[in-house]
TrEMBL record:
GO terms for molecular function: hydrolase activity. Residues 77-295 form the Alpha/beta hydrolase fold-3 domain. It holds the Pfam family Abhydrolase_3. The active site is at 165. It comes from Lithocarpus litseifolius. PANTHER family: ARYLACETAMIDE DEACETYLASE, CARBOXYLESTERASE 12-RELATED. This is Alpha/beta hydrolase fold-3 domain-containing protein.
Length: 320
């Protein structure tokens, strides 16, 4: 192998990562982690659990302080972090802080899934790991399973999946798999897709038609999913998935941002569901003047607070 390849950059995605010609990925952002804790600001407590020692799949669990004051079971949120399938982690400071705030505001139990990332573990491994995590969660129904927090505090009749960017993509596919395969003991009430990472070969809406920019998205997708059929693969383009109408929940909330490159894909997804035979309710919320995952970059701004409250309202709808 040409030794120069080890230092020559093939693709640069500032400020997140670089891909070298030898196939190596240098992660620049999303590499910091923080331990679980008792968050003194919110009263939310967290801990880490290993789901599969063989694969290393794990999760961070969160419970609100109200669990100490009431025996009532709480809705269960399963969260999938973003990062293009290749950066970030469930243990990143921004996700840890976001889940603390979310759990406190929504009064839910949360499981934040730590799936394996590309390129070391190419897609669809992230989906397989996420499904393994969901089966582990489902093992706690009827008072069974190894984790006391889930057994004592989670209501498996009121379960939600959520994620941002690539995590929203995963949440969609997990919702689809529940609809197709079922998840014994778990009632999936709804899914929340925040700035979902979907794409396609043909530009839609106001998407950039610049071939170079669109090509960069395709290069990233092929890098994270080498076995893909292309940018119209159902993994990345739900418009090509004949099983889309099988989504296994009764409600969907799609959150988009006005300046996000992926905005039109979010709107398109809502239209696709309407044409697919899906019989549930689909809601869309657009944040004006904001860009991709703005709520993680600045969690206290007005639009971030409004986004959080909208998702919380969606989850708590119909709760006694």
């Amino acid at each position: 192998m040409d030794s120069s390849n080890s230092t020559e950059i093939a693709h640069d995605y500032p400020p997140f990562f670089k891909i070298y010609k030898d196939g190596r990925l240098e992660r620049i952002a999303g590499i910091e982690i923080v331990p679980p804790s008792l968050d003194f600001k919110t009263g939310v407590e967290s801990k880490d659990v290993v789901i599969s020692p063989e694969t290393g799949v794990s999760a961070r669990l969160y419970i609100p302080k109200t669990t100490k004051e009431s025996q009532k079971k709480l809705p269960l949120l399963v969260y999938f972090h973003g990062g293009g399938f290749c950066i970030e982690t469930a243990f990143s400071p921004q996700y840890h802080n976001y889940l603390n705030s979310f759990v406190a505001e929504a009064n839910v139990v949360a499981v934040s899934v730590e799936y394996r990332r590309a390129p070391e573990h190419p897609v669809p491994i992230a989906y397989d790991d996420s499904w393994a995590a969901l089966k582990w969660v489902a093992s706690h129904t009827d008072g069974k399973g190894p984790d006391e927090w889930l057994k004592n505090h989670a209501d498996f009749e009121s379960v939600f999946f959520a994620g941002d960017s690539a995590g929203a993509n995963i949440a969609h596919h997990m919702g689809l798999r529940v609809g197709l395969d079922g998840l014994a003991g778990v009632k999936l009430d709804g899914i929340v897709l925040v700035h979902p990472y979907f794409w396609g070969k043909e530009p839609i809406g106001g998407e950039d038609t610049d071939a170079e920019k669109r090509g960069k998205v395709e290069v990233l997708w092929r890098y994270t999913c080498p076995a893909t059929s292309g940018i119209d693969d159902p993994y990345i383009n739900p418009g090509t998935d004949p099983k889309l109408g099988s989504l296994g929940c009764k409600r969907v909330l799609i959150c988009i941002a006005e300046k996000d490159t992926l905005k039109d894909r979010g709107w398109y997804y809502s239209e696709l569901l309407g044409k697919s035979g899906y019989t549930g309710v689909v809601e869309v919320m657009e944040a004006k003047g904001e860009d991709h995952v703005f709520h993680l970059m600045n969690s206290t701004c007005e639009n971030s607070v409004a986004l959080l409250k909208r998702i919380v309202s969606f989850i708590n709808q119909g709760q006694a």
